[in-house]
Task: inverse folding
């Protein structure tokens, strides 16, 4: 049964009426190390709006760039002395890359520079539910996924199909 | 650092994840209470979104979910401080209905009103009167070194 997915509009009946799922947050014991990883490894844009806080988004949203004016999701990292709740693989952050080959290339590069970025385990790429991806864990137990999805499996396409279960 | 200098050149900061062990009850909380859009493409997962191409993937697990701390949370933007207040009142009123475990006090910081709650899956959410402009301005301003 292909029931329509719930629509992407402000709900008239829900108790909270959000405009946007705007951010996710995590912690690090070394903000500079996290920034090096987000910029130098993951290719993301970072800024420190206050001491001990790092904002992260995909590149391209500055004025005149290709994504200028389009919505984006932000990760907020906060520096702490200790990571009170270590994360596990099922709690991760992900980025999409453009091809299966890009996943393989990313794996080779990241695996080769694991120590330089202070990473823990770097898993090998594999197919799962039609996506091709691998995971790695950073020096603060935060897990990250590098993923390629075919066009029919990107989130907007899945939303258009509606529930499949 | 230029984009070409990074090891990976992603197209999208695409997703985060959370765990649940009761997909229907979790979906009811997400849609009826939080007002998030949900689709279930797989028996073991539902995808959450609101306002953009990124998603939060909710993975069904057996047994107890991991207890998360409030510093690992997802943030929902609403339009006004009054909407934050209304959401807080609703969270207190409907705690039992939706299995909300904790509702923290309202806070004001830098012109942003917010509060945090922990849901039935031990996942933390923040409701805040933010907009994309808040982050646009932060990125445009650049690093604050002091």
Result:
């Amino acid at each position: 049964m292909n029931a329509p997915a719930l629509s992407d509009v402000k709900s008239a009946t829900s108790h909270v009426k959000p405009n946007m799922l705007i951010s996710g947050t995590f912690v690090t014991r070394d903000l500079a190390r996290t920034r090096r990883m987000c910029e130098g490894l993951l290719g993301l844009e970072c800024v420190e709006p206050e001491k001990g806080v790092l904002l992260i988004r995909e590149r391209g949203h500055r004025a005149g760039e290709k994504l200028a004016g389009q919505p984006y999701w932000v990760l907020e990292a906060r520096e702490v002395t200790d990571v009170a709740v270590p994360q596990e693989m099922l709690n991760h952050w992900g980025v999409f890359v453009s091809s299966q080959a890009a996943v393989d290339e990313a794996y080779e590069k990241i695996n080769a520079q694991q120590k330089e970025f202070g990473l823990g385990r770097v898993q090998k790429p594999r197919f799962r539910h039609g996506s091709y991806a691998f995971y790695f864990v950073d020096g603060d137990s935060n897990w990250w996924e590098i993923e390629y999805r075919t066009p029919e499996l990107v989130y907007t396409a899945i939303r258009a199909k509606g529930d499949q279960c | 650092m230029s984009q070409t200098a990074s090891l990976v050149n992603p197209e999208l900061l695409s997703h985060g994840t959370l765990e649940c062990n009761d997909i229907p009850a979790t979906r009811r909380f997400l849609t009826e209470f939080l007002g998030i859009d949900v689709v279930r493409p797989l028996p073991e997962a539902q995808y959450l979104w609101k306002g953009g191409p990124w998603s939060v993937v909710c993975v069904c697990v057996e047994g107890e979910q991991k207890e998360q701390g409030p510093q690992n949370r997802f943030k929902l933007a609403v339009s006004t401080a009054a909407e934050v207040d209304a959401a807080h009142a609703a969270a207190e009123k409907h705690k039992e209905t939706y299995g909300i475990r904790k509702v923290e006090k309202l806070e004001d910081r830098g012109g942003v009103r917010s509060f945090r709650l922990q849901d039935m899956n031990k996942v933390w959410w923040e409701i805040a009167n933010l907009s994309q402009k808040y982050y646009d301005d932060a990125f445009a301003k650049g690093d604050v070194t002091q």
